[in-house]
Amino acid sequence: MSETSGPAHRPSAVAGPWSVPVLVRQRRPRVVVKADLLPAVSVLGTLSLLSFPLAFAWSRLAPPERVRIIAADGSQGPLELESWHRFDDLAVFGFLTLGLGIVVGVVTWLLRERRGPVVFLAAVLGVALASALAMLLGVGWANSHYAITSPPALGSVIELAPRLESWWVLLTGPLGVSLAYSLLATWNGRDDLGRRLG
After folding, report:
1. Which of 45, 48, 49, 91 has its CA 20 to 30 A from that of 123?
2. Consecutive H or E run containing 93
3. Which sequence ranges are marked TM in the entry (predicted)?
């Protein structure tokens, strides 16, 4: 029999279960830095202004420590359980900055056209800066709020201004931003975070 001329047969790409599928690697979106720099600076500057209400709220919510005057020279003696308020002052500030961080993380995520690491880092740094400024301002405002205008009498009970004795509390604000933003980015699940560039 004569061979019939025809198109050459090529082996199929899926000839059997032993064949390996070709993985098509999609191009991932690149991180936009240049376009996000100005919005990031705006976020950083705006968040630093939140230090004022944060400091005022802490200076009014943090409990003072009450002590008794035990000598004519103004020496102070602690009252029972009052020293615990030194931890309460830290806890109040920590919860305030943590709540601020969570709110900032959610609001920053809603800036859909600017989602990404640049604005996220600006939000983290902005909350850290606002917390540091609020720590300094809040202690000053608390001292003026609980200022003693006249020498206390012997045996009288006075209130000492709230104080913040640890800088570690400044980590709670950036932690709140990171948790909120990371959870939202994980829930989104897209490579470009659902970003719409204009």
Report:
1. 91
2. helix 85-109
3. 37-58, 90-111, 118-142, 167-187
Strand partners, 158: 67
- CA dist 119 and 38 (Å) reads 9
Both tokens of 123, joined, read 């939000």
Residue 117's CB is within 10 A of a number of other CB atoms, namely 15
Using CA atoms, how far residue 187 sits from 43, 113, 122, 184, 197, in Å, is 23, 17, 21, 5, 20
Contact present, 48 and 129 (Cβ < 8 Å): yes
Dihedral sign for Cα atoms in the order 161, 167, 171, 173: positive
Dist. CA 90–CA 8, nearest whole Å:
80
Per-residue confidence (pLDDT) for residue 30, from 0 to 100: 65
Q: Helix, strand, or coil here: 137?
A: helix
Strand partners, 77: 68
Among 158, 150, 4, 152, smallest CA distance to 68 is for 158
Q: Coil, helix or strand for 189?
A: coil
Percent of the chain with pLDDT over 90: 47
Instruction: Assess contact for 131 and 51: CB atoms under 8 A.
Output: yes
